[in-house]
Amino acid sequence: MQNENFFSQVKQGLLDTCYICVKEMRGLVTDEGVLIFCVLVPLFYPLLYSWIYNNEVVRDVPVAVVDLSHSEASREFIRHYDAGSDVKVAYMCNSLDDAKELIGKQQVHGALYFPEDFERRLGRGEQATVGLYCDMSLMLHYKAIYQTAMAVAGEMNSRIQLSQSNSFTNRDDETTTKPLDFDEVPIFNVTDGYGNAIIPGVLMLILQQTLLLGIGLAAGTARENNRYQDLVPISKHYNGIFRIVLGKSWCYFMVYMVMAAYISLVVPRMFHYISLVTPWTILGLMVPYLLSCIFFGMTLSCMVRYRENVMLLVVFTSVPFLFMTGVSWPQSNIPSFWQGVACLIPSTFGVRGFLRISSMGATLQDISVEYHALWIQTFVYFLTTCMVYRYQIAATRKRAFDHMQAVRDKIELAKQKKLSSQAK
Amino acid sequence: MKENNLYTYRPKSMTLHEVLSRIYHISLREVGIMRQNPIYGFCTVIFPIVVIIFFTTLMAGGQPTEMPIGIVDQDNTTTTRAMVRQLDAFQSSKVAGYYPNVNAAREAIQRNEIFAFLYIPKGTTSGLMTSTQPKVSFYYSNVTLVAGNMLFKDLKTICTLGSAAVGKTKLQAIGKTDDEVRTFLQPIAVDTHLIQNPWVSYNIYLTTSMAPGVLMVFIFLLTPYSIGTELKFKRSRQLMKMAGNNIYIAIAGKILPMTLLFLTMMYGFEFYIFHTLDFPHPGGVIPLLLMGLLSVLACQGFGIFAFGLMPSLRMSISISALWSVLSFSVAGATYPLSAMDPEIQSLAQLFPLRHYFMLYQMCEFNGYPLSYAWFNIMFLLMIAVLPIFTLRNIKRAMLVYVYIP
C-alpha cells in the first residue's frame, strides 16, 4: 500500500514535470520576446559577430614617410617596409607636419621619419636613427606599424653587419649575424587572429546572455499574465518545487543543447575559426555550463517585476562579463576582487573552458578547474532556484489563502447582514 | 474633446510660455515616475558607476604585467640560467614553471598555467662556444591576444639579446669601445614615439571607449522603456493630455530629465578619467562637452526612433538591446573598422558609439581641431534627429494602441 502510494506519487510528479515543461515550451514559441532571444538571437548573432571579425588580421595599415635623407639606404628601408604584409607606405611627405596632418585626417596611422643625416651616419660608422611615430588610438595599428619597423631594421642591421665583418663563407655570415638562432612559434592561434581570440568567448557569452534574457522574459510574462502578479500559478500541476524547477529547466535545456551544438560546432566551421573540439569533451563542458546558466537565470528571474526590466538588467553586463573571462585582459592580471565576482558567473568558466577546448584542443582533465566550478555553480544555483521558488509558492499560497479568506469574510458579512435585515 | 477624435484633433497654437510650462510639468511627472520605479535609479546611476569602477580598476596597471611563462631548459648551464633570470626580470614576464620537455610545457598552456614558454635544447651553450649557431625556440599562445603579443615581444627581445651578448663579448675581446660595439650590433636604431600614450596603457586605450559604451547601452534601453511604460501602465492618454496633444512636447518633456541625468553621468565620468585619473586629453574641455552632449542625444534619438518604428515596448527595447550590444564591436575601438568587410563599415556609421570613438580619438586624444571630425559630428546629429520620421507613429500609438503583454 505504502509502495503503491509512493510509485503513484512519482508518476504524478513526472507527469506534472512534463506538463510544466510543455507549457514552458509553448510559452517560448508563442511569446515574441522569448522567441527572439532564445531562438533567433542564438541562431543569427553568432553569424553576425563571426562576420565582423572574420578577416582576423589587420593588413596594409597606411603609413606616411618623411624622407629627408633621400638616400639609397633610406629608400631601401622604405621599400622593405612597404613590402611588409601589415603596412603600406601610403604617402611621401616633406615634413613631419604634413604627416601629422594626414594622421589627423585618418589617412595614415603612423609616420616614419628619416633624418637628413641618415645615410651619412651609416657611412661614418655611427648609429643612425629612424623615427617612428604611432597613432596610439588603436593597438592593432600600433602593433602592425611597430613590429614591421623593428623587423625591417633588424634585417637591414644584419646586412650592414655582414658588409663590415671579415667572413669568408655563407655559414660564417650566419654565425656572425646570429650566433644564437631562434624560432618563433605561435601555437594554437596560429593566424595571430583577432577573431580566433575573441569569437569563442563571444559565442559562449551569447548562450548565457540569451538564456538569462529568455528565462527572465518568460518569468516576467508569466507574472504579468497572472491575476495576482505571481510567478507560480495556482494549479494542481504546480504542486511541488522540484516539478516546477525541473520542468522549466528541462525545457530550456532541450532547446539550448541544440543551440550549443550549433554555436560550438557549426559556427566556427562555417567561418573557419580554429576548432579542435572532441565530442565527449564538448559535451562534458556544455552540460554543466548550460545547467548552471539555466539555474542562474531562474534564480535571477524571480527578482524581476516587469518583463522588460530583465533587459535593462542583463544587456549591459555582457561587456563586463566578457572582460572578466580574461579573453581580452589576461586572467592572471585581473584584480582579486573582480576574480571573486567572476566566480559567481557561469560564463567565466564556460568561456575559459571552451576557449581551451576549442582553440587549444584541451581535454576535460585539462580544464578540470572550470569543469568542477561549473558543476558547483549548477548545484548552488539549483538550490537557490529551489529556495526562491519555495518562497514564491509560499507567497502565492498565502495570497490565495488571504484572498479566499477575504471572500469568505465577505460572504459571512453579507449573510449576517441578510439575517439581521430579516430579523428586523 | 472626445477620446476617439483625439488623433485628428489639432490644438490651437500655443505660446512659447505655454509650451515650456507643459514640458516642465511633464518633466516633473517623469521625475516622479523615475523615483517610484527603482530600476531607473539602478540604470542611470548605480550600474554606470559600478561599470566605470570595474573598467578603471580592472586595468589600473595600464599594462598586464608578470604574466606566467614556462621554461624548458634542457641545457641548464650558467649561460642559459642567466638568460632565464633576465627574462624573469622583464616587466611583462614571470617565470612560473620549469618543464622537462616541450610536451609538458604545451600541456601546461592547455591547463591555463602559462601563456608561453622558452625551449633551450641541450648543447646550446657549447654551441655558442664553438660558434656552430645553436637554436632555441619560443612558443607563445595568442589565444589570449594581449598576453601572447606582449610575451612574444619579451621572448623575442631575450633571444635577440642572447645573440647580441655573444657578439658583444667577441667585439670587446678584440678591443672595440662600447660605442663601436653598439654601432656594430645595431647600425640602425628605431626611435619610437608612441603619441599620447607612451605607456601603452590599456586603461587609457580601452576604458575611454568601453565605459561610455556601457553608458550608451543604458540610454539606448531606458529611452524606449520610459516611453513604452506609458502604454504599458495606460498612462499615455494622460501624458498626451498634459502635452496638449502635441507629441513633440510630450516626448521632449519625457526625455528631458533623463537627458540631464545622463549628461551628468557622462560628464562625471569624463571628469573622473581625464581629471582625477589624468588620462591624456590634449583636446581640452570643448570636445569633451560636445562628445558627451552629442552622444547622449544621439542615443536617445535612436531610442525614440526605435520605439516609433515598432511602438511596442517589447519589440523596441529588444531592437535597442541588440543594436547597442553590437556597438562595441563595430565601433572599431578594438579591431579596426577598416579591417572589416565594407558592408559592416557602412553599417557601423549608424552606431553612435562609432562616432563617439572617432570624435574622442581625433579631437580629444590626439588634439586635432573639431573640424577634422565634421563627418562624425554630422552623423551624431543625424541620429539625434531620426525621431522626426517616426514621431507620428508614436502619437498614434499613444492614443489608440493597447498594450498586450
From TrEMBL, chain A:
TM region(s), chain numbering: 33-52, 197-220, 241-265, 277-298, 310-330
ABC-2 type transporter transmembrane domain segment(s): 34-384
Membrane topology: Multi-pass membrane protein
Keyword set, alphabetical order: Cell membrane, Membrane, Transmembrane, Transmembrane helix
Major place of residence: membrane
GO molecular function, one term: ABC-type transporter activity
InterPro entries, per database record: ABC-2_transporter_component (IPR051449), ABC2_TM (IPR013525)
Keyword Glycosyltransferase part of the UniProt annotation: no
GO cellular component: plasma membrane
Keyword Membrane on entry: yes
Cell compartments where the protein resides: Cell membrane
PANTHER family on file: ABC TRANSPORTER PERMEASE, MEMBRANE COMPONENT OF ABC TRANSPORTER YHHJ-RELATED
Protein name: ABC transporter permease
